[in-house]
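FAQ

Q: What does a record look like?
A: Structure on top, sequence underneath. For example:
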C-alpha cells in the first residue's frame, strides 16, 4: 500500500518506468511500453480511468490520508469508526443498506476489534494515526464472511527512513454555541480540550521503524440544574514497530490502549451527587503479524491478535452497601446510583492466509486460502448497591413490598415504601 515506481528493462529496448498507487483492498494495474533503441519516432501515450472497475466484485470506498485530513472537519468526526459514515449506502449512524449497527465489523491493520457484546468498534486511537481506511459495503470476499453489514479496515501509519510527526490541539466550550429563543448556552455549560501528537521514524535505517501516537481528551459538561460536572478524561495510545527482516520477509508489532475515566456519570438536575457513577474503561489490544514472499507467486500472511476490554460503572462514593433511593414526588435519585456494572469483553483473532498469483493467456488471477480463529468471551455483572432499591410513593395504594416478602431468606429485588403525607 502506498506510492510505487515500477521499472522494466529488456536488452535492445529503452527502459520504461511508471508510477502506481496501491490502495487498500484494491488492485493496481500498470501498463509499460518498451520502445526499441533504434526507434526515433514520437509516441504519444494516453490513459483513461474506466467507468467500471472490472477487477472488483465488491462495493465500497477507500479513504486516503489526504482525504481524511481535509474532509473530516470537527472533533466529533475525527473518530475511527465515524469514517464509514462517509461511504455510499450508509445511513448515519453506521447502518449499511438496512443492516443494523451490530452487523458491522471493524478491523485495524486487518485485525478484528469489534466489541463482542455491542457489535460497535471497541478500540479508539488518534485520528492522525490512520494512513488509509477501506469501507466494504457489499459483495465481500469469503474472508469477510463474519460481516453482514459493512467491513471497515483502518491501516495505521508506519515509520519510515525520515522522522515525521503531527500535532493537533482543539478546544471549544459553550461560548461556541449559538443562543436562540429556546436555548441559552450559559445554562448548558460544557468544554472540550483535545491534545494529540504522532511521531514516526527509523530505529535502524532500511530495517526497523517505529510509529507512536498519543491523544488526551478532557470533556466536561454541566447540565442545567445539575449539582456536579461530568468530567471525562481519556488517554489514547498507539505504538507500532515494523521490521524488514530482508527484502522478502517483514514483521509488524502493534499495541494500543485507551484508559478512560468518567467522574459523576449520570449527573442531572434529578440526581444527587452521591447517586452518580464512576466509569472506568480500557481497551488494550496487541497484534503481531508476519508477511512473507515465499516464491515469485506465493505470499504468506500470519497474524495473532487479542483484545482485552474492561468497563466498570461503580458508585462515585465507593459505597456498595447503601441501596439507591428514589422519591417520585421530588423526582430525585439519591443515596447511590441505581446500578453497578462490572464487565470484561475479550476477543482473540488469529489468522493465516496464503495467496497464489497466476498469470497466463487468460489473464491474471489471485487464489487465496486461509484459516481464521475467533474466540469471544464476555463476563458481565449487574446489581443494585445493597441488593435492592427504595421507592418513595406518596398516597400509594399498593401494599409495601418488603425485603423478604416471599420468605426465601434473600433480600427482595425492590422495596417500595409509602411515605405518609403531612
Amino acid at each position: 500500500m502506498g506510492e510505487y515506481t515500477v521499472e522494466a528493462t529488456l536488452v535492445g529496448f529503452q527502459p520504461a518506468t511508471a508510477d502506481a498507487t496501491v490502495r487498500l483492498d484494491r488492485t493496481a494495474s500498470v501498463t509499460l511500453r518498451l520502445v526499441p533503441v533504434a526507434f526515433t519516432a514520437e509516441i504519444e501515450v494516453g490513459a483513461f480511468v474506466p467507468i467500471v472497475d472490472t477487477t472488483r466484485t465488491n462495493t465500497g470506498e477507500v479513504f486516503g490520508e489526504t482525504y481524511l485530513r481535509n474532509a473530516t472537519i470537527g472533533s466529533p468526526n475525527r473518530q475511527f469508526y465515524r469514517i464509514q459514515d462517509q461511504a455510499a449506502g450508509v445511513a448515519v449512524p453506521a447502518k449499511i443498506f438496512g443492516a443494523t449497527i451490530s452487523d458491522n465489523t471493524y478491523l485495524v491493520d486487518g485485525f478484528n476489534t469489534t466489541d463482542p457484546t455491542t457489535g460497535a468498534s471497541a478500540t479508539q486511537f488518534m485520528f492522525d494515526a490512520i494512513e488509509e481506511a477501506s469501507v466494504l459495503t457489499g459483495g465481500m470476499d469469503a474472508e469477510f464472511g463474519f460481516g453482514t453489514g459493512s467491513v471497515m479496515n483502518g491501516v495505521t501509519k508506519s515509520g519510515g527512513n525520515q522522522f515525521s510527526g503531527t500535532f493537533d490541539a482543539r478546544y471549544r466550550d459553550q461560548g461556541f454555541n449559538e443562543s436562540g429563543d429556546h436555548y441559552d448556552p450559559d445554562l448548558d455549560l460544557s468544554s472540550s480540550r483535545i491534545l494529540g501528537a504522532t511521531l514516526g521514524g527509523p530505529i535502524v535505517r532500511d530495517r526497523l521503524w517505529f510509529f507512536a501516537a498519543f491523544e488526551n481528551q478532557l470533556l466536561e459538561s454541566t447540565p442545567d440544574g445539575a449539582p456536579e460536572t461530568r468530567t471525562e478524561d481519556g488517554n489514547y495510545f498507539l505504538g507500532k514497530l515494523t521490521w524488514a527482516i530482508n527484502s522478502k520477509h517483514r514483521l509488524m508489532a502493534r499495541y494500543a490502549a485507551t484508559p478512560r475515566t468518567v467522574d459523576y456519570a449520570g449527573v442531572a438536575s434529578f440526581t444527587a451527587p452521591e447517586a452518580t457513577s464512576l466509569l472506568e474503561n480500557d481497551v488494550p489490544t496487541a497484534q503481531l503479524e508476519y508477511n512473507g514472499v515465499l516464491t515469485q507467486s506465493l505470499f504468506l500472511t500470519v497474524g495473532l491478535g487479542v483484545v482485552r476490554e474492561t468497563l466498570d460503572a461503580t458508585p462515585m462514593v465507593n459505597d456498595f452497601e447503601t441501596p439507591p433511593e428514589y422519591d417520585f414526588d421530588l423526582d430525585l435519585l439519591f443515596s447511590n446510583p441505581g446500578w453497578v456494572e462490572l464487565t470484561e469483553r475479550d476477543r482473540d483473532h488469529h489468522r493465516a492466509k496464503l495467496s497464489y498469483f497466476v498469470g497466463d493467456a487468460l489473464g491474471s488471477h489471485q487464489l487465496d486460502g486461509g484459516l481464521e480463529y475467533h474466540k469471544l468471551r464476555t463476563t458481565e455483572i449487574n446489581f443494585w448497591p445493597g441488593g435492592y432499591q427504595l421507592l418513595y410513593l406518596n398516597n400509594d395504594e399498593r401494599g409495601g413490598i418488603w425485603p423478604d416478602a416471599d420468605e426465601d431468606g434473600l433480600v427482595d429485588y425492590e422495596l417500595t415504601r409509602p411515605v405518609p403525607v403531612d
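Q: Is there anything notable about this one?
A: The radius of gyration is 28 Å.
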